[in-house]
Design a protein that fits this description.
Strand 1 and strand 2 form a beta hairpin. This protein is 66% helix and 1% strand. About 4% of the residues have low confidence. Among the domains are: 45 residues, no CATH class; 97 residues; 71 residues, no CATH class. By secondary structure, it is mostly helical.
């Protein structure tokens, strides 16, 4: 890992050193682990909990994926598979582990977040096995089931389990968004996020990337002033802690007020939001170039795929847009964390499938969106567009070709 960056605090340098030892296969001293776990810096405390099971990567796989001894090995395997989009390894690993009749609820929750939509039914079977072992009162199991049913787009079931989970506001808020109560659900999930952000005295790049940036995705994807207003009510107070958050606040205010956007690129504080700014400003070709430089894989870039798909669609690259919208729509991680993006992707993908002549697939996508968001509580033009296209498709003779 090398030497820690000079700008880090002494506490974070100590955390860096501990991870450097672990990356070399050396267990950090127990007194150091104890000190880090009780540190006043919430980021240090959080990451120190990962140290006892940390293993260096070996190509695209972790050694943990080839072992089956400890809980942390299993968790590391899941983490590596999520980061690298390496579904095959995780699936094989879980099949092997399931054959040995173990089913840790929190691991099941992590597994549900992997990008394997066609494996959700298998995950549900494993979770039912976990229920037999753990009962229905384990909050980790409830968290896993809430995530699973959001990813399966069964919001009523998701709400039931969300209320028993470790993160009830986040999970219930997400489930409500899936069933069309977007305004209330978005507000609920944001207020839960605010509780996580409160302990941080300052917002560094990690906090911005992992906590702040994801909270804005729905606002920038929809450009909906109601969602912008809700975001500002909850998140604007954090602007005093960070110039970067203050810059994001101004960007969201522009969406709320239909005002001029900072399209000049002169705000360095918005560097982490470059993709979103290019999307809002309609600079599609630049967005494609920017995303190509970053790469498209890994947990942090999942939401970028939505904006990249939009850019390719604007540029007329319909096949690439279709591939990306399909990846967004079918990703359980995005379904359970960014449901608004995946719902919009249903309409985009439906239209692209219709243009290809895949009318049955287009109907399926439109029907899913209209069924779940028939009474959506914010203005979403994609719902009405999907409803009209669905009516037109039902009115056509079966042999009709797709419209241009």
């Amino acid at each position: 890992m090398g030497a820690p960056p000079s700008r880090l605090s002494e506490h974070r340098k100590a955390l860096w050193s501990a991870f450097s030892l672990a990356a070399q296969g050396i267990d950090p001293p127990s007194d150091l682990l104890s000190r880090l776990s009780e540190d006043e810096d919430p980021l240090v405390r959080t990451f120190s909990q990962m140290l006892p099971g940390f293993r260096p990567s070996e190509g695209p796989h972790l050694l943990a994926c080839r072992k089956a001894d400890t809980y942390l090995d299993r968790l590391n395997c899941l983490s590596a598979s999520t980061v690298n989009d390496d579904n095959r390894t995780a699936r094989q690993y879980f099949q092997s582990a399931a054959a040995k009749s173990w089913a840790e609820p929190s691991l099941m929750s992590a597994f549900v977040g992997l990008p394997m939509a066609h494996d959700l039914a298998t995950a549900e079977l494993w979770l039912q096995r976990a229920r037999l072992r753990a009962g229905d009162h384990d909050p980790r199991l409830a968290n896993a089931l809430a995530r699973l049913y959001v990813a399966m787009r069964k919001p009523s079931d998701a709400v039931i389990w969300a209320r028993r989970s470790q993160h009830p506001l986040v999970r219930e808020g997400t489930a409500m968004q899936v069933e069309g109560r977007v305004r209330t659900g978005f507000d609920m999930a944001l207020r839960a996020a605010r509780g996580i952000l409160e302990p941080f005295p300052t917002f560094d790049a990690f906090v911005m990337a992992v906590l702040v940036r994801p909270s804005t995705s729905a606002v920038f994807a929809t450009r909906n002033p109601d969602l912008a207003r809700i975001w500002l009510e909850v998140m604007e107070p954090f602007g005093v802690r960070s110039p970067a958050v203050a810059a994001v606040v101004r960007l969201v205010q522009a969406v709320r007020d239909h005002a001029a956007l900072p399209c000049s690129g002169r705000e360095p504080e918005l560097a982490a939001f470059r993709i979103e700014v290019l999307h809002l400003c309609g600079r599609s070709s630049e967005l494609v170039d920017e995303a190509r430089g970053r790469g498209e894989q890994g947990f942090d870039e999942r939401t970028t795929r939505f904006f990249l798909a939009e850019a390719h669609l604007r540029e007329g690259h319909t096949e690439r847009a279709r591939e990306l919208f399909a990846a967004v729509e079918s990703d359980p991680n995005l379904r359970s964390n960014q449901p608004i993006l995946t719902m919009i992707a249903l309409q985009r993908l439906g239209r692209l499938e219709e243009q290809r002549g895949e009318l049955a697939r287009a109907k399926e996508l439109y029907e899913t969106l209209v069924r779940l968001w028939d009474r959506v509580d914010i203005h979403v033009p994609e719902v009405e567009q999907a409803r009209k296209r669905l009516e037109a498709l039902h009115a056509r003779p079966p042999s009709s070709a797709a419209s241009p």
